[in-house]
Every structure is written in structure tokens, then in C-alpha cells.
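Example with several molecule types.
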Amino acid sequence: MALTSRIVEWLDERLNLSDVRHFIQEKGVPIHAQKLWYYLGGVTLFLFMVQVASGILLLLYYRPSSAEAYESVQFIVTQVEFGWLIRNIHSWSANLLILAAFAHMFSVFFLKAYRKPRELTWVSGVFLLFLMLGFGFSGYLLPWNELSFFATKVGTSITGAVPVIGPPLVRFLRGGDDVTGATLSRFYALHVAILPATATILLGLHLLFVQRQGMSVPIKTLRALKPGERLKEMPFFPDYILRDVLVWYIAIATLAALAAFYPWELGRKADAFAAVPAGIRPEWYFLAMFHTLKLLPSHIMGLEGEMLGVLAFGLAAAVLVIVPFLDRRASRGEPSPALTVLGVLALIYMIAFTIIGYMAA
Amino acid sequence: MNRRRFLDGILGAGFTSTLAAIVYPVWRYLIPPVSGEPATQSVVAARAAEVKANSALLFKFGSKPGLLVRTPEGELQAFSAVCTHLQCTVQYKADTSQIWCACHNGLYDLAGNVVSGPPPRPLERLTVNQRGDDIVVSRT
Amino acid sequence: MTWFRGLACVVFPAVVMLACTGVGTASAQTAQTAANGCVACHASLSDARLSAPPAALQGDVHQTHGFSCVDCHGGDASAAEKVAAHSAAKGYRGKPAGKDVITVCARCHSDAELMHKFAPRQRVDQAAEYATSVHGKRLASGDTQVATCISCHGAHGVRLVNDAKSPAFPTNVAATCGGCHASAEHMKGYTLPDGKPLPTSQLADYQRSVHHAALTKNNDLSAPTCNDCHGNHGAAPPGVSSLTTVCGTCHTVFATKFATSVHAQIFERACIECHSNHAVLQPSDEMLGTSSQTVCASCHSDKDDPGYVASAKMRASIDRFKHGIDSSANLIGRVKNAGMEVGDDELALNEARTRLVLARTEMHAFDPGSLDGVVGEGMKILAGVDQAGNRSLAELAYRRRGLFVSLAAILLVVIALVFKIKGLEAKS
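Resulting C-alpha cells for the full complex:
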């Protein structure tokens, strides 16, 4: 401890850290019935850091060409010491990260933390969620095995259902007309450069906003306060940090358990000319959408069913982005049960269709 | 030692061991493995001194066997040791300086061409290079 | 007068040159009219039998080397009308038939000095060989229905045997022989040595065989067709005692093993007893054993028969080995999918599969003891593979336990953290 305080003093002399130190010492986290939800953001951030670190390690040995991708992953898990561990952590943490991101988004939604003045935090957060889904989709192809090849083929062909820009969009995503080594190169660039750069900027802004504005308190809690009463707070350092670290440790434990009991398989190397395996489906976070599109009739009122489905999802995503601007009542500090109900329905739909999608296979 | 310091001690030990449990695997991961790189395209078949004139040895190339031959004149040749007939593993016959498959008596010359017997195609040839003491065989 | 001398120096050589070319043209023209004489007349005839031969000459190997109609048919090619052209005095012999065909062809093709000028590597003993063949012997005794040189090589439009359009090219030989031998009408009256009528099913049988498939589908020109077993010019069915040698020309290992077996003394028709002569089908392990579909059961159906016991043992051995290979391959596949290194084990599996191929060869000695020797080697290799596979599975279990241990450590830290937090709460 003495060493750390000496380092801090040395830096303080040169950079004047007084306002930073003041900020950390004064920063508090409100205590109320819903405070547990606060930890989800931190867990998402932690899992993202795990992804970056394990991803960089994998980058040292991975080869993004259709001739060598599968073999390089095989090399990592068989020849490189602890390669199997790094790979398993990266694959499982990806799933946990997306689960945490969705949970974080839903908790913020139901607690209306997006209301004024935190609209920008919400918008940046929603775009971060889309980026995480993009990370998941692009990263899934990289091991170049049968499952990932065909899942990508099916997934990219769905974008073709978008009217007008659909087919060129598919060509843009695939780097050609079919899923080939060109697709792999493109997805690799997306996964290790384009998406990380964008995510870094958005994440930086998102965290900056949270630090400047502090934690949001649910409307009900605020309304229950007597006039002049202030909400009790716990100091960020060390109380909240310790709890945050506790949650991160639980996340690590979950990761270790998953890696131990459900290790990720190598699969068979992708063969473009093989038949599509029966029951091919995307990872769970796309399953609800995928299954919905499967169930839609081929034509609805003369228009292509798939196109309507894709447009509907696009519309839903757009609505999600502008929720703070739609919810006037929350901005005024009033409860908005209508949106809450809408959110519950959306959550039920997503969970139900994910389960149904799994059982259908 | 009071309870608080005991707890702090456990926590400190816990954090340190977590750190060690992360740093140790990462450090071992960063050290390049002995086999160098994925053996899809090239492999170190043997050391130059191991292969004498008019002899051959089998080596592993990916998941298939390969045959490294030093001709009586001292030249190095490498082939896939998978017979093109029914995929038996071929061997070198020093008395006739030919490559022979024991299964159905297929014979290949030192260019990999079929001399007699049932093999329908020549043996797949591989490229041989020498890097210091190592003989490196790679796909042509 | 210098201009005249100069002119003479130019004009005179030019005239000489023209004259020489004129002479050359004249003689070429004579030669052309010589050939053209036959072709010019025959090409314009309405009878197809007479006008077809000159048309067929296009691409004929004899014509390419400067031979023409008169070299085989005799006569006078320069004559412009029929009687003079067909003059017996000029050696005209019409359409050679029967033994004449052999004489006409052999006139050149048995002349080593002559053939040396055109095709030094070509043999010159075809006629002599032919005389020893069934076709030759029957021709000598007056049967004109049998094949002669032109039946297989054609008369006009003859191509080298290595020309893919030649009827004697390996992929065409079966159809050429089948032209007579598959026709019930043509073969009427011919019998086998034992008096039964000569079958005409050989072509159909051959077309079902692996040899035919190798030749026509895999373009393996070393695969046998009619002439490889029966001979080309000395064509005759191989003698019964020599069948092992005939098949053994290519299938050497099987012939050697078979020669050591009990069947070598017993079988009349060696390899053919089990594998047939023309309809040689893809063999399989199903041929071996005691059930009704096996080949062994056609002789060995009695449980006390030592042959029955041996075939049962051998089939059981091979089945056991195959099963072992499958289960080891499965194990290695599982281990590979789980992300373990299996290169050496895959190599060992290759070795085991090699032993299976060798076992099927060894079986032709019809000795369960020697077969078990080969299978035993293979099973030893499989045992090694299984050991390595199980070691990898144990390593996977070890990793799982290791992660379990780390879970326990993490939980300890979690509990300590909970206590710490509670402690801090109590303070404030």
C-alpha cells in the first residue's frame, strides 16, 4: 500500500490528480431496493475486457485464411500450452457477454434509467448492444468449421430479404456472392479491427456519461422520498468496488464451470460443397429472430413474408434506440406502465421463441 | 491477529493467487510451442545426418505418413507414403532402390512413377529443402 | 553484249529451275494419278461397298507412310479404266479373303528388314503367333468365319494400336472381340471342348467386371481386357492349369499365397472358382464365411468339414479386426473433436488399415493360423491407439478436475469478499 501511495503522489506532482482523487473519494452509489441491477453494467464491461484479452492472445496464433483457419484453431487447442483454456474462455465469455448485455439493457429499460438526462447513455448503450451482436456473428465464422460456415451462410442470406439494399448488402457482407475465404477475411477485419475501434469509442463515451451523471434512481424510489430527504449512498471506493469485484468473481466462476463441463468442440472443417447439415441454426442470441422468420408464411398480403419479418425487426431496433424520446412520462418523472408492459411482452417473446427454436431442432 | 487482518490476509492471498492463475497460463501460452506452426503445409521431417544414402525413413505429415528417401547418389526425395492403390503405407527397398508396397506388390521408382503392380497413379511428390541441419518437407 | 550475258545469267538458271520443278510436278502428278486412279474411279461408284474404302483411307497409317491400294490389292493404279487397272498381270488379286488376308498382311509385317524402316520397335511374329491360335488353326482347316487381321485392325483406315480410335486400342478391344463372340448367330455351331455350345455371354459378363470399370471409368490402361488373358495374335483360352499364372501376372501376391494353399491342389479352375473369369466383380468380406451368401458355403456347408471351420474362423478374425478399427477410429474422432492432438494416432490407424488390406491378401492362403498372425499385428497397433486415445480422454478429465479445483479457490475468495463487505457495512 505504501508503494501505491508513493506512486500516486509522484503522478500527482506532475499531473495534478486532485480533482480525480476528489471525484473517486466523493463518488457514491445510491442504496435502494433495486441497487442489485447496478452490477450488470460492470459485469458486461468485465466480460468485454476478458474478450479483448483472450481475443488478443488468440490473435497471436490464428490464421484468417480458409486454408489455415481451422488448422490454426486446432493448433491452438492441441499444441499451444493452455491454448484450450484461452479458446474455451473466449467462446464462453462471448455468450456470457451477450447475455449480460441483454440483461443490462432490460434492467435499464424497466427501471427507466434511460429517461432525461441519460438519453445519450441509452443510445450509445443500444448501439453497443448491436456491436456485441456483430462481434458474435463475425467471430462465430472464424473457426471455419461446418457449423459456423453454414450458420453464416444462412444468416447472411437473411439480410437479402431487406428490400432494395438487401442483395448488395449480402454481397458486401460476404465479399462476393457466396460464403468463401473472402467472407472470412472480411469478418476477420470486422471482428479484430472495425468493431473493436467503434466499440472503444462508444464504450468510452458510455462510461464518460455514466461517470458525469452518476447512477440513476428508479422513479418509484424517488417519489417515495419525503421532501428534503436524501437517498442513502455507499462510497464507491471501497464498498461498491468490492461488491463489483465479487460479482466479477462469480462471473469468472461461471466461466470456469462452463469451460470445464461444456468444453467447446473443434467440429469438422468447413466444406463449401457439402450438404447443409440438418437442423442448422444460429447461436442462441439470434435464435428467436431466426425461428420467427422460419415460422412466417412465405407471403403476407402479397408481400414476401421474410422481408416483412426483417423489416419488423429493423423497426423494433429503431424503436429501441429512440425509447427515451418516446417515453414522455418517464422524462417528467412519472411512471410509464404502457412501455413497461411492452417491454415485458418483448422479453417474454424473446425467451419463448429462443426456447421454441431450441426445441424445434 | 484480529479477524479483520485475517480476512484481509485471505483476500490478499486470494487476489494474488487469482493473478497468478491468470498470469501463469498466459505466460506459458505466449511461449511458442515446439512444433512451430500448424503442420498443414510443411514439416521438419528429420535431421540431415539421420538419412544415409540408399535409405529412407517414414515421417508424419499432418495426419498421413510421408517417405523421405536419400537416393544412392545422395539426393533427397520426399513422397507421400500413401500407396495410390489401396492406401497402404509404402516402404523403401534398398536392394533394388525402389519404393515398394507390401500389400499387393506395387513398385514405384525414385521419381514416384509406377513401375509395376496395381497402383493407378504415381506417388504424390513433396518438396524437400534443407534449413541448417533440418530437412524440411513441404507440399509442392 | 554485257547485257546479254547478264540476262543469260539470270534467265538461264531460272529456266533450269522451272524445268526441274516442272519435272518434279510431273512425277508427283504421276504418283498422284497413280493413287488417284483407284480412288478417282472407286469414289464415284454408286455401290457403297466399293466407294467406302477410299473414303476410309483418311487417317490410315499405311497411307501416311506412302502405301497405297496396289500395295495390298495389286493391279495398275495408273490405268484409267477398269480392265487395265484390274490387270492380273500387274498382280491384281481382288479382295483378299481367308488365308489370303494373312498372306497379304504378313508380306510386309513379317519382313523384319522392311518393318525396321517404318516401325523399328514393332514385332514381326504376328503371323506366326496367329497360326498357333484357335482362330489360326480353324482358318487353316478351312473355316473362313474366324477372325483374321482385318477383323480386328480393319482393312482401310487402319490406325496404330495406341491410337484411341483403333479397334485394337485397350478400351475398344472388348467390343471388337464381342463383335463376333457376343453374337449368337455368328457363334452358332461352335462348341467347347466338352461339346457344350460356345457361350456368348463373355462380353456382357466382362462389362460388369471391375476390370472393365477400371479401364473405361478410371482410364487405367493397365487394366486387363480380352487380349491380356487370352493373347492377341495367339488368342486362345488359357489352359486350366495355367489360370493362376494368368491372373497372377498382375495379382502376384494373391497367386503366391494361393499356390501355398490346399485349394491350389483341389481347384480345377484356380482363381476363377471364386472370382469368375469374365464377370470379375468387386470382392468383399461377404464372400468369406459360412452363411448362405458366401462363396465358401457353396462347397463347405457341413459343420464338421475342416474347410467350414477354417472359413468361419477366418471370417470371424477379419470381422473382429474391422470392428476394432471402427471403434478405435471412433475414439480418435471423439478425442480429435474435443481438441486433443491425434496426429500420431491417425498414423497408427493408417498402419492398422494397411494390416487389414494385408489380412485380406493373407486369406488367400486359406490358413486361419497365418491370417491370425497378420490380424494379431493389427490388433496390437489398435491396442496402442486405444491406449493413446484413453490417455487423451484422461487428460481431458484431468483438465476438468483442475478447473473444478480453481472453482473451489474462486468460491473461497467469494466467501472472503462477502465477509469483508459485511465487515465494512457493520463499520459504517
